[in-house]
């Protein structure tokens, strides 16, 4: 089959004057910017000095009332700077059956775009062939380096469908890159002489694919040729191809021909042939070929931010922000709650709270510790410690406030075992289930503070079975608290004057108690030099333990070392009825003052009466004075209770009365010492005991002769109880509970 190209002389020549075009970098302001409704942006231009080069020269041809822009001979439809393309109209080749002549009429086409500036776009264009018995070719100049073809056949119209270009009535094929010239022709072997009734003409054109939509009307009519007067839209790629330079070369060229003049512009290598084009940088738009041609894009006009977000345009960019508490999620392009922020703020808040709270607690604790330390110092804690260091082996403990609070269940009312003028005595259980009595003052003045300290210092050093043992103290509180061994059976005062009175208690027991109290006081007087003076000896201060053994207590009025004269003056105290009259006059508290008071105790035991009867007759108000009067009149029976008169031996009664009288001597120096009193009581007790008990008593007294030294007494508690076995009628518990009286 002979393939022949039919070249009719209707070729279209694009661009002929590309050679000597001067390069003009500056566009004249007079330049026409539009022609026939088509924008002509630089580097394109109409007229001299308006285009970048002759390749971009656009001629605006006036046809009647309208004008049309042309590039070379091709009508210009559109210019795109961004994709560096132009849209032009190129001719359609035809191959028709002439019914009158009975032959085929050919109209082949060629297009020369030259090798400068333009190339036929291989991306947007397709070689398109229409007909029911046709074969068309496209090739370069004489088909030596490129030739392609497309066949389309159909026996009748019923096979042809709208929109489908797949070989039946319509055929399309792609073209290669870099084409700047093409020829289109038809194969003679395919003609429409047999099918001219429904398809007289075949067509072929290189045209924009997007602009083509096949219709069956193109087969049966001349509509395809007639729509644009034998023309079809086609896309050309353009570039700045001076010397076939790449971007790199053009930028380095010092002669100033680099076309991308605008700031914020970028050079783009041409994808179709040599050369380059220009684009505005990301975020900018405009004309990159003009100085300052690229300007910022206001991206916010397109509302790129999610709803609820705020768009802020910046030069070259934009920013989306969400309102407080929300965070921009790039992934979802939405304003989500800023969990990080919320969590952060919450945690921050809590951390701050914890910080403040713990800071407050630390401050409070420090303050408390400081106060405690201050109290400790005030109450002579340091002196005590110094002494305790010197006298090792002292069974004395310094309690903390917390320990005592725990021991007394926070000073619960049910733990109160005694109520004094100045404070409370609580029963508490400290470590190892040891019951203790805790003395705690409610109000305190300087003098009472001093008393507390006195008592503490004295008792902490003294260790005698007949003296209440101070187990420890607490110095951290404002008023120091004293912790004693717990004495369960009340006081001698209660025993004599209590509800059940002395009727149920044998006189022997009372005598023993008094003897023990005397031993305790004697020990106190002889313990140190100068002697410790109790200062407030009375029956209410003689406590009784479970075995009714005496325990001298309440050393608040005691004097440790009466060497300072001032001390005598300030220490006016004691209890009415027991007070040494000499002390009242001289204000000198001596060990004989205690002896006087003890004389009153002996009287109480002897007579069973209280030392002061305020409601009695004037002469009998004071027990001591009425006793002394009775003694003087040799009428002792007047003051003795009836039950004693017959039961006890006259010798014992007389001995006791004599002892009391000596103790109550107005002149202190005439009174016996406490030691002598104790010895005399010991002697008198022997008189009262039964023979079998007398032996035991002797053993006990011989022990007490050994000493008054603390160790000997300390270990004799058990000896003591065995030394005084329960005797008939002796143990008569009165109050079921136990009591401890502080003053
Ligand atoms: C174009 O520029 C040249 C040289 O710059 C000048 O001689 C000529 O007159 C200009 N032509 C027009 C139409 O402005
Ligand atoms: C541009 O084209 C017009 C008309 O086609 C022509 O007169 C003119 O000389 C051309 N200018 C250049 C610089 O090629
Ligand atoms: C030029 O192209 C733009 C978009 O590419 C289009 O909107 C416009 O209609 C075109 N103009 C002509 C005359 O084809
Ligand atoms: C058919 O051919 C004749 C002579 O060759 C010519 O005059 C006539 O115009 C043609 N008809 C068409 C429709 O081209
Ligand atoms: C059409 O082609 C056939 C063969 O394919 C041929 O015989 C016939 O002469 C041709 N007709 C015309 C008018 O060229
Ligand atoms: C196309 O045009 C250019 C410039 O005018 C010319 O040099 C070239 O030979 C032409 N090509 C053909 C095939 O006519
Ligand atoms: C056409 O092709 C031949 C070789 O086939 C070649 O010699 C000739 O120069 C070509 N013509 C043109 C115009 O390129
Ligand atoms: C088209 O061809 C088919 C078979 O090839 C035939 O049946 C049908 O009638 C034809 N239609 C027309 C309109 O000629
Ligand atoms: C194709 O579309 C044209 C109008 O666009 C219509 O006249 C014709 O009947 C359609 N052909 C078919 C086969 O639908
Ligand atoms: C195609 O259209 C052009 C312009 O209208 C016309 O000159 C030419 O004769 C037409 N060709 C055919 C085959 O109809
Ligand atoms: C710069 O451009 C000019 C003209 O376009 C050219 O003659 C010259 O060779 C170029 N120089 C370089 C280094 O590319
Ligand atoms: C391409 O154009 C340049 C001038 O712009 C010319 O010198 C060269 O010969 C041309 N090449 C071809 C193959 O047409």
TrEMBL record:
Keywords recorded for this protein, A-Z: ATP-binding, Disulfide bond, EGF-like domain, Glycoprotein, Kinase, Membrane, Nucleotide-binding, Serine/threonine-protein kinase, Signal, Transferase, Transmembrane, Transmembrane helix
All residue ranges annotated as the Protein kinase domain in the record: 411-693
Alphabetized Gene3D superfamilies for the sequence: Laminin (2.10.25.10), Phosphorylase Kinase, domain 1 (3.30.200.20), Transferase(Phosphotransferase) domain 1 (1.10.510.10)
Subcellular locations according to the entry: Membrane
Membrane spanning stretches: 341-363
Membrane topology term: Single-pass type I membrane protein
Segments forming domain EGF-like: 296-336
Sequence positions that bind ATP: 439
Signal peptide limits: 1-25
Molecular functions (GO terms): ATP binding; calcium ion binding; polysaccharide binding; protein serine/threonine kinase activity
Coiled-coil parts of chain: none
CC annotations in GO: plasma membrane
InterPro entries: EGF, EGF-like_Ca-bd_dom, EGF-type_Asp/Asn_hydroxyl_site, EGF_Ca-bd_CS, Kinase-like_dom_sf, NOTCH1_EGF-like, Prot_kinase_dom, Protein_kinase_ATP_BS
Pfam families in the cross-refs: EGF_CA, GUB_WAK_bind, Pkinase
Annotated spans, Disordered: 698-717, 723-743
Biological-process GO terms, alphabetical: cell surface receptor signaling pathway
Record-given protein name: Protein kinase domain-containing protein
Species: Setaria italica
UniProt lineage: Eukaryota, Viridiplantae, Streptophyta, Embryophyta, Tracheophyta
């Amino acid at each position: 089959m002979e393939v022949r190209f039919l070249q009719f002389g209707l070729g279209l020549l694009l661009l002929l004057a590309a050679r000597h075009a001067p390069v003009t970098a500056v566009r004249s302001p007079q330049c026409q910017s539009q022609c026939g409704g088509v924008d002509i942006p630089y580097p394109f231009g109409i007229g001299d000095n308006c285009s970048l080069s002759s390749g971009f020269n656009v001629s605006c041809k006036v046809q009647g009332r309208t004008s049309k822009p042309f590039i070379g001979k091709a009508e210009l439809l559109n210019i795109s700077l961004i994709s560096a393309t132009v849209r032009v109209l190129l001719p359609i080749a035809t191959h028709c059956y002439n019914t009158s002549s009975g032959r085929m009429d050919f109209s082949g086409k060629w297009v020369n775009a030259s090798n400068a500036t333009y190339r036929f776009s291989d991306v947007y264009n397709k070689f398109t062939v229409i007909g029911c018995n046709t074969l068309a070719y496209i090739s370069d100049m004489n088909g030596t380096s490129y030739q392609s073809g497309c066949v389309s056949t159909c026996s009748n119209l019923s096979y042809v469908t709208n929109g489908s270009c797949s070989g039946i009535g319509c055929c399309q094929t792609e073209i290669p890159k870099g084409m700047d010239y093409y020829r289109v022709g038809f194969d003679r072997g395919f003609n429409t002489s047999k099918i001219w009734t429904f398809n007289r003409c075949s067509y072929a054109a290189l045209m924009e694919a997007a602009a083509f939509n096949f219709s069956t009307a193109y087969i049966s009519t001349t509509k395809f040729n007639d729509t644009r007067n034998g023309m079809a839209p086609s896309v050309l790629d353009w570039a700045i191809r001076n010397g076939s330079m790449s971007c790199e070369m053009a930028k380095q060229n010092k002669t100033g021909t680099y076309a991308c003049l605008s700031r914020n512009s970028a050079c783009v290598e041409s994808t179709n042939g040599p050369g380059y084009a220009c684009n505005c940088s990301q975020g900018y738009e405009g004309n990159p070929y003009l100085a300052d041609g690229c300007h910022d894009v206001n991206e916010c006009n397109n509302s790129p931010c999610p709803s609820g977000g705020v768009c802020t345009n910046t030069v070259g960019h934009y920013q989306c922000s969400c309102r407080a508490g929300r965070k921009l999620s790039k992934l979802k392009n939405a304003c989500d709650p800023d969990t990080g922020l919320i969590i952060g703020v919450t945690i921050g808040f809590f951390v701050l709270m914890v910080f403040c709270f713990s800071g407050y607690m630390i401050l409070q604790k420090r303050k408390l510790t400081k106060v405690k330390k201050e109290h400790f110092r005030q109450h002579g804690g340091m002196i005590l410690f110094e002494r305790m260091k010197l006298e090792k082996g002292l069974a004395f403990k310094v309690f903390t406030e917390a320990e005592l609070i725990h021991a007394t269940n926070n000073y619960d009312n049910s733990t109160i075992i005694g109520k004094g003028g100045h404070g409370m005595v609580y029963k508490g259980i400290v470590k190892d289930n040891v019951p203790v009595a805790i003395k705690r003052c409610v109000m305190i003045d300087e003098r009472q503070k001093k008393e507390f300290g006195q008592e503490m210092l004295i008792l902490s050093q003294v260790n005698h079975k007949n003296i209440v043992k101070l187990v420890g103290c607490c110095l951290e509180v404002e008023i120091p608290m004293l912790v004693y061994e717990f004495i369960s059976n009340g006081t001698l005062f209660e025993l004599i004057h209590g509800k059940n009175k002395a009727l149920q208690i044998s006189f022997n027991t009372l005598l023993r108690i008094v003897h023990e109290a005397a031993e305790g006081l004697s020990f106190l007087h002889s313990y140190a030099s100068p002697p410790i003076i109790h200062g407030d000896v009375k029956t209410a201060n003689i406590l009784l333990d479970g075995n009714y053994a005496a325990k001298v207590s309440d050393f608040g009025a005691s004097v440790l070392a009466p060497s300072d004269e001032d001390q005598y003056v300030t220490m006016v105290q004691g209890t009415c009825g027991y007070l040494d009259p000499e002390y009242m006059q001289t204000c000198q508290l001596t060990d004989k003052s205690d002896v006087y008071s003890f004389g009153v105790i002996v009287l109480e035991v002897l007579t069973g009466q209280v030392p002061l009867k305020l409601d009695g007759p004037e002469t009998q108000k004071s027990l001591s004075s009425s006793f002394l009067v009775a003694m003087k009149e040799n009428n002792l029976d007047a003051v003795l209770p009836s039950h004693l008169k017959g039961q006890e031996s006259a010798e014992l009664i007389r001995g006791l009365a004599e002892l009391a009288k000596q103790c109550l001597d107005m002149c202190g120096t005439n009174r016996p010492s406490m030691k002598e009193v104790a010895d005399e009581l010991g002697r008198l007790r022997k008189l009262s005991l039964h023979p079998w008990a007398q032996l035991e008593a002797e053993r006990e007294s011989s022990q007490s002769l050994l000493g008054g030294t603390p160790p000997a007494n300390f270990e004799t508690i058990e000896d003591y109880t065995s030394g005084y076995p329960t005797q008939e009628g002796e143990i008569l518990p009165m109050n079921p509970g136990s009591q401890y009286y502080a003053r």
